[in-house]
Every structure is written in structure tokens, then in C-alpha cells.
Amino acid sequence: MTEDLHDVRLIVNGVHRELRVPARRLLSDALRHDLGLTGTHVGCEHGVCGACTVLVDGAPVRACLLFAVTLDGHEVTTVEGLTRDDGSLGPVQQAFAECHGLQCGFCTPGFLTTITAGIRANPDPTHEEAREIVAGNLCRCTGYQNIVAAVERAAEIAREDVPGDVPAPASPPQDGQLGVEDRTEDQATTGLGG
Amino acid sequence: MKPAPFAYVRPGTLAEAVAALAADPGAKVLAGGQSLVPLLNMRLAAPTALVDINAIPGLDEITAEAGGVRIGALVRHAAVLASPLVRRVQPLLHLALDNVAHATIRNRGTTVGSLVHADAAGEMPVVLRLLGGSLDVVGPDGPRTIPVEELYVGPLESTVRHDEVAVSAFVPGLAAHAGVAFEELARRQGDYALAGVAAVVEGDVVRAGFLSVSDLPTVVDLSGVAAEDMADLALASLDPVGDIHASADYRAQLVRVMTPRVVATAREHARTRTQGGTR
Lengths: 194, 279
Ligand SMILES: Cc1cc2nc3c(=O)[nH]c(=O)nc-3n(C[C@H](O)[C@H](O)[C@H](O)COP(=O)(O)OP(=O)(O)OC[C@H]3O[C@@H](n4cnc5c(N)ncnc54)[C@H](O)[C@@H]3O)c2cc1C
Ligand code: FES
Ligand code: FES
Description:
The complex is a heterodimer.
Chain A: E1 5-12, E2 15-22, H1 27-34, E3 53-56, E4 59-62, E5 75-77, H2 91-99, H3 108-121, H4 127-133, H5 145-160, H6 185-189
Parallel strand pairs in A: 1-5
Antiparallel strand pairs in A: 1-2, 3-4, 3-5
Helix pairs in contact in A: 2-5, 3-5, 4-5
Chain B: E1 7-9, H1 14-23, E2 27-30, H2 36-41, E3 49-52, E4 62-65, E5 68-72, H3 77-82, H4 84-89, H5 91-97, H6 103-106, H7 111-117, H8 123-131, E6 134-139, E7 142-147, E8 152-154, E9 157-158, E10 165-172, E11 179-185, E12 195-202, E13 205-211, E14 218-221, H9 227-237, H10 248-274
Parallel strand pairs in B: 1-3, 2-3
Antiparallel strand pairs in B: 4-5, 5-10, 6-7, 6-10, 8-9, 11-12, 12-13, 13-14
Organism (chain B): Marmoricola endophyticus
Domain FAD-binding PCMH-type (chain B): 1-176
InterPro entries (chain B): CO_DH_flav_C (IPR005107), CO_DH_flav_C_dom_sf (IPR036683), Diverse_Substr_Oxidored (IPR051312), FAD-bd_PCMH (IPR016166), FAD-bd_PCMH-like_sf (IPR036318), FAD-bd_PCMH_sub1 (IPR016167), FAD-bd_PCMH_sub2 (IPR016169), Mopterin_DH_FAD-bd (IPR002346)
């Protein structure tokens, strides 16, 4: 069987991207293999570990449970899109560095995206709420204490941040036309790692 | 692992979706994908085609209806959980949804998809069974309503036919003087329950629903039964199954501990609502 290919337009970290993929291409694989954005990690590939979590139209979702073809016209934010405009670490990334929120780093991209959305929804979480924000992500190294501390620290940094400095929350999705300004390829791929 | 190849269609109308399903006996509906895609990734299922219903307009609404609330097929768990209407009309749905998966999964998974998926370890099938709701579907012969008593026939098996699309679920509201409660034990909040109990108390009528105990969502009438006898009566209708997460004995023990406690909480809820509160 020769597989049909589908044209898919995505706005990834503010950049319009076009790809041609079979229907079974998972969003996680489209990002890593087709677009070279290997910051999104793949652990379990059945929704349990959270390593692949990205933001679609601003909301955290499992990239391993979505087919790229279903997202034509939508906006995706990966870990590469969490840095500030000047390429320095965003609030959640900075908090992870300060609080030692990672060891091997495999789970980290999924935590960073999840927490970015979590503190946007709840800018001043209690300790319990901070735990709740990361309850759906697994980490095999840290024992979670420093990750929870990083959630609280990230919220603090984001609150102190000059307005407009934080990566802006995605505008509500509108099929096709998404009010996102184009950025050049170069800027969008800075911070591409591991 | 990766899914096996499949054809993909994204119809813009219900009629086209039904036609696409009818044309290919190996086709399956794709809603939120939070149960289906893991099965595809693990190659436990290999449909020849996926009919993505996400572009069909009009299926993403929660509406008040006489006697209850209607939930469209594309309403995500997260939207149902956040709905003040749902919370007011049927608090049990809200209580149970808080235990369905993690927030990230709830952003995508649909409540109707959960009902069709018919997992006895899921919260939604047993809640609908306990409340006596129904599912509206559309197939090649037109629409029909499936009462929840006729919906579940086996493990992961519902009476929704292969060429039917579920369009909405009707969830009855809570009577003014009735009370509800829900409790489950999971290894982490948001994981599938090792066992769970939901209860509705209305006057002398006491009913409890059990999830993740037997391989079907099961409801037991506990009216007039003393607290200490409830678990025995419930276990007579249940057939606890053991798996890597919990042994059958442990599940039975959870039923013993939780059943009287959940019924007592539902009674207390009914008492506070009767005393003028609306919560
Ligand atoms: C990590 C993880 C944890 C989870 N934990 C829980 C939990 O604790 N409790 C729980 O209840 N669930 C849990 N889930 C499952 C989740 O609730 C799913 O969202 C839900 O079961 C299915 O809804 P869906 O929209 O994703 O359906 P899909 O995955 O798209 O479909 C599931 C099945 O139903 C069929 N279907 C779906 N919608 C329709 C329709 N409208 N008409 C006809 N057929 C349809 C599909 O063909 C498929 O066979 C979990 C999932 C994951 C990945
Ligand atoms: S890789 Fe997606 S949740 Fe584990
Ligand atoms: S830092 Fe190694 S898995 Fe989390």
C-alpha cells in the first residue's frame, strides 16, 4: 500500500511551516523528524509520561496522541518557543536552572510546556496547586521536589516580569487565520537542543 | 511504536461522516484520540480509515434541557469540568470528571468519546448508568436514542454500531432534595482508578455505581440497607477482577471501605440541599 500524503500548515513557535506527511504521522514525530525540532521528547508514546507535551493554541496536549494532519491551521508551541525574544531563558526555563529542576533532562521539555500553561492559568499557585500542575508528568531522576519548587519560582519570575516580556499567550484559535506575526526561521530555531 | 497506515478523512457534515463509516467496515471515528491513539500506537487496533469528526459544526455545545443537560460529541472533558451549568444541574458529573485523567488529557479527550469507549475503569460510563441518561447517535438509517441501560454490553463494548456517530449525551439533573458523592482510589490523582464508587441518595432510595471493579460499569440498589451490610450486598453483584495494579481481594476491600462512606457523604449532601442550599 502506498500511503497518501497530506499537506499540513502549522504555525510552530510563531513561524508558518508546511509539511507533507502520511495521516499516521504523530505530531511528536512531525516536530522532531519533519521539522527538526528535537526539543520535544518522546518517552512512552501512549499519553502517560508527558515528555512530549506541547501547547496547541496555547493549551497543553500530548503530541504523541495527536496526528499532525488533524492540526492543519493550528498553532503549536514547543520548548524551543519558550525562550524570550532575545534568545535568553524564559521564566520557566530560568526557574528550572535556578532550582535544579532537572538531572538527565529527558522529561524537562514536557514539564516546561506544561508549567508555562499552568502558571498562565494560575499565576500565583499555592504549594498544593503547584504540585497539581505537574501531576500528569513523570520524572525518573529528580524526585519532583525541585520541580515543584521551580513551578513556584517560575510563577514568581513571571509575575515580576515586565509585561510583554513573557512569551505571549496564544491568541484564541481561529481556523486558518491566526493572528500571529511571522518571525524569521532563524529566530524561531534558536534554542534548538538535544 | 507507530500506528499502522490508515486512510484519513475529515468530513464537514454528519451525513458525510456516516457515509464514510458505512463505506468502509474497517473505519473508526476519531474524536479526542485520547483512548484511540494509544491503541493505534501500540497496534492493539489497526483501523483501515479514521473518520475525524472534529470539523463537524454544532457538536461542541453544552445545553440546558428539560430535566438535565446535553453534552455534544466534541465537548472536551475540560469544558464540561469548567461548566457552571453542569455543576449546578448535575454535580455528580463535575465530581467524577475531576478524577478523569490529567488536565492535559482532559484538554483533548471528549466526554461523549469516553461514554462510547465503554471502559469499565472510566468514570463517565458508570456515572451515566447511575443517573439513567442516554446517548444520541446518527447512522445510515437516521438518528436514534440509546438509553444507558442498553448501552453497555461487554468490556469496552457498547451498542453504538460501527457506522453510527454519537452526537450527544443527555445527563439527567439532580432532583432538588437528592444528594450525590464520588470517591475513587488511584495511585496518583488522574490515573485510572483502582476502584471507585459513586452514589445518589433521594429520599429512601439509595443507589451506588462501581467503576474499575468488575468488567462492566455496575449499579447496585442499596435502598433500606444498613451501612454495615452495604458492601456485602454490592459485592454480590460485582465480580472484582485482579490485574497488575490491584488484586481482586484488594478491590473487594476498597468496595468495603468506600461504599458506606460514599453513601454517607451523599446523604449529607442531600441533607444540606434540602435545608435550602442549592449546592
Ligand atoms: C494517560 C491517560 C490517562 C487517562 N485516564 C483516564 C481516567 O482516569 N478515566 C477515564 O475515564 N479516562 C481516562 N483516559 C481516557 C480519556 O478519558 C479519553 O479521552 C476518553 O476515554 C475517550 O475520549 P476521546 O474523545 O479521546 O475518544 P477517542 O480516543 O477519539 O475514541 C475512543 C473510542 O470511541 C469512539 N468514539 C469516540 N467518539 C465517538 C463518537 N462521537 N461517535 C462514535 N464513536 C466515537 C472511537 O471510534 C474510539 O473507538 C485517559 C487517557 C490517557 C491517555
Ligand atoms: S511520549 Fe507522549 S506522553 Fe509519553
Ligand atoms: S530529569 Fe531525568 S527524567 Fe526527569
